[in-house]
Amino acid sequence: MKEKLKSWLLNDQIFYGLIVILVAIISFILGQESIKNDSKTAKPIVQMIEPINLSATIPANKTIETVNKATVDFVENDNKNQFVASKNGKRYYLKSCAGAKRIKPENLISFESRELAEAAGYTKAANCPGL
């Protein structure tokens, strides 16, 4: 019996296989124990806080209808004119095109029709669908 055990231990494949299996079992058991111990002392990662009230208040002497007149003029002007161009550019766009949205407000020129835009020396933009 002693000789048989000695021959098994001397066989490298069986010996190293047993060592790997024992290390895996011991590691698994230690890992499970560490989780059990941590759960007793673990603190939550996220702490709940009270909701923040973000309601806006308007001073008594101000109203929502108080708006900058230049803003109102621009909006009214925008409704009449379908075509826009830049002072520094050579193309005109529909006001809904992406190119029109990139024009700075200080460089924006509005036209009521294509004919007026072309009469001012602008050509239609190729990347604006619907022109």
SSE map:
Layout: H1 2-10, H2 12-41, H3 69-80, E1 83-86, E2 91-94, H4 98-101, E3 108-111, H5 114-119, E4 123-124
Parallel strand pairs: 2-4
Antiparallel strand pairs: 1-2, 1-3
Describe the structure.
- The chain is of the alpha+beta class and 131 residues long.
- It has a domain of 46 residues.
- The chain has a four-stranded mixed beta sheet.
- A hairpin with a 4-residue loop joins β1 and β2.
- It is elongated and about 110 Å long.
Distance between the amino and carboxyl termini: 98 Å
Report the helical percentage: 40-55%
The overall strand count is: 4
Instruction: Return residue spans where pLDDT drops below 50 for at least 5 consecutive residues.
Output: 64-78
Top keywords for this entry?
four-stranded mixed beta sheet, 131 residues, 5 helices, alpha+beta, single chain
In brief:
With 131 residues, the protein is of the alpha+beta class. It has a domain at 79-124.
